[in-house]
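input
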Amino acid sequence: MEQKGYSLHIGLNGVDPEHYQGWAGELNAAENDATVYQTIAEKSGFAEIKVLLTKEATSAAVFAFLDKAAKELAEGDLMMISYSGHGGSLPDLNGDEELDHMDETWCLYDREVIDDELYERYSKFKKGVRILIFSDSCHSGSVAKAVVTKSDVGPEDKVHYIKSRMAPLGVLLRTYNANKKKYDQISEQITATKKDIDAYVMLFGACQDSEEAMEVWDHGLFTAKVKEVLMGTVASYMEFYQNIKKGFNRKQHPNLDQFGNGNFKFINEKPFSLNGKAADVFFQEVRAKTVKGDSEGLILELNGPTDPEMKSKYYKRVWGNRAKPDIVVEGNEFVLAKVDADHTSAWDKAYDKVLTDSNVRFAEPDLRSPYLKADPLSKGPGQDDYMKNWPEPNPSADEFIWHLDDEHSQLKKARDFVLGNKDGKPGIRIGHIDTGYRPDHPSRPNNLLADLGVSFAKDEFDKNKGIDLLNTGFPAEQDGHGCATLAILAGNKISKEDSYAGFNGFFGAVPFAEVVPIRICDTVFNLFNANDVADGIDYAVDHGCEVITMSMAGYPTKRVAKAVDRAYMNGVVVVTAAGNNWNRGLRELAPKAVLYPARFQRVIAATGACYNHAPFDFSANDWQETDDSGGAMQGNWGPEKAMRKALAGYTPNLAWATEGESFKFSKSGNGTSSATPQVAAAAALWIAHNRAAIKKAGIEKSWKKVEAVRSALYQTASKRFPEYSLYFGNGIIRAFDALDAFDFSKVDSLTQSPESKVGLFGLGNFIGGWIRSKDKSGDAVIAENEDAIKEMVELELLQLIYRDPKLMGYANVADIDTEGDDNVFNGKEYRTAFINKVIDSPFASEFLKKVLQNN
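output
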């Protein structure tokens, strides 16, 4: 008989304050934890999966599913239960708690559930049923009061503090006293104990009864460790438990408890197995996709002139055959050297190159960035609807362009005003860096400069003028991504037949602009390289673009930093996506903080705002989620320093150009990909409107033009959301209000944004000594290479934060990439904990590990 799997996943980021005497029990990551275990069940082929989050997680809902499972599951079947939330305690009335005379509880939304109640439910399961429980909560009878706690496990996120999951004793006492009759009655009616259970129960607990379970960033520490362990393979539940305990925080010790009918003990089985077979543990694919083949070679920076004045200038590329580019060197020259390397050997080869080749000053791998993929459109053929778990526009004649209206971005009003004042020829050129354009889509911009189009993807430089090649054989999640973002930027007039809601008119925010299509990859799924991005930026600058838009994000690299600085110094406004992350489902591990190049201070980071002007973030948007049709993607934001140059555009539920036969636009455009071209369009409209004043001020090719644009956009951005600076930076674009917002008499008072640098600079004071001590072969590093090696080490360390899931939490720390005295790495304990994690990282080069081990 086929074995079945049922699972119940409970995650509470809060409880009902009416029952808990005014205490809301706020947590940050319990709901996220529930999705970890949900995904395990999905990948393991469980037949029924129930998820109860916060308000849904009532005692009635929990018991209803357990009672159903108890009736339907038979010998050999598996019942998995996960709980993430506060743990509490109540007085033991039946005398089964001999040590502390307190029953441990789960703090469900409506009330505490006593462990004895759970035992009674388990006793209803048939003989031979396997019950597997993960409890990421405190099971403590101590009198410790729960407070926001600082821990040595990692950086303290100033938005999501490290928190205890132990309900405060005072709250528990007040709650019990106020509901004493109810709780005593429940306890008195319980008859079953552990001894009465015919099933076999195995409980993985986050901590010992006398300890607190902690959460940090996006998961409980215990669940985060479960996720980490499942990046590898485990042969049995016992090995699973041993690996979870290994290297855990010294203040919290996971526990394994077993009880029930010992004839069905399953601790030596492969985890989550049904019918003797276990699903391929899904976390393995994360490592496979980010480790293998993610470097195309080395980007070499050759030694240039030593004169400071010459060093401040920038190289100019004469665009010929890309394989042998003709470069006029005015500063340090960059070239691409092909090597056969994976993620670690590429960095080792970079260090070797600098140490052995006197012509090379600096080297870095030409890395592929893996955090780019957008949720697939979840509709089947012929279906087109809004995502119900995000706010959707009100039905109207302009529903198709809701994001352009006066209530939102004002882009339509600004567009029409600028177009009317410029006799239909406002003159602005934009570089669009993406997957390319589709020649046959009705949204193709009227002024697309196809002859200037270029492709830096693969070997297409001389063969492709920026056309998106669909169905290339790569399992892309969104073919035509470039077509969709280009339509939002400068889409042409759309007919009623090709739109929806009866719309007829221009779709693009700046449809009169000249657009240079620059293709850098096939898809937003893990395929663009650092050198391609930098070449795309350089190409746009060299071909007269005044604004650059790129709806992608990824790793920090020096090559891209230099290209960004060159654009900035030439008066080109660069707008790039802040990036996306997922609040459940674990489709890919990704940081929640702003990614690069959006994190550079000379770039405008495009974040997301919903139709209701709330953040494109589940935790900050009180919209009621009604289904899973919109997936789990949300926008990146933070930390505070990364938001100083940020602006928001609108997403999701935007019209999204598609290649489907049934419709040309989907209603479910999503991600910061949709927001980015809106912000870029607002910048382009400002430049077109202020052309005469820009010329008069003499700032056409100056960084001052960039700062003038940003000053106007930042000053007028909507700040109606109470915590706008946290999620949007400077607010949400108001394009029309910005047109005349800058006072050109104050142009000389503009200040230059900091140079785009890459590296964990707080470690720099310590790295120098380590490098002088030993290189990877044990030989002393020659003095003239010390600065370059130090710079490379700092960059590799920063990249590791975005590459290794165990280090990604550091991306949320505001001062990791600054050189001031407040840098977190100035603290020895903090620095040592980080270094130890790097040494253990499978993503770090051998050279780096040996440098750090010399500390």
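quick obs: The chain has 23 helices and 30 strands.
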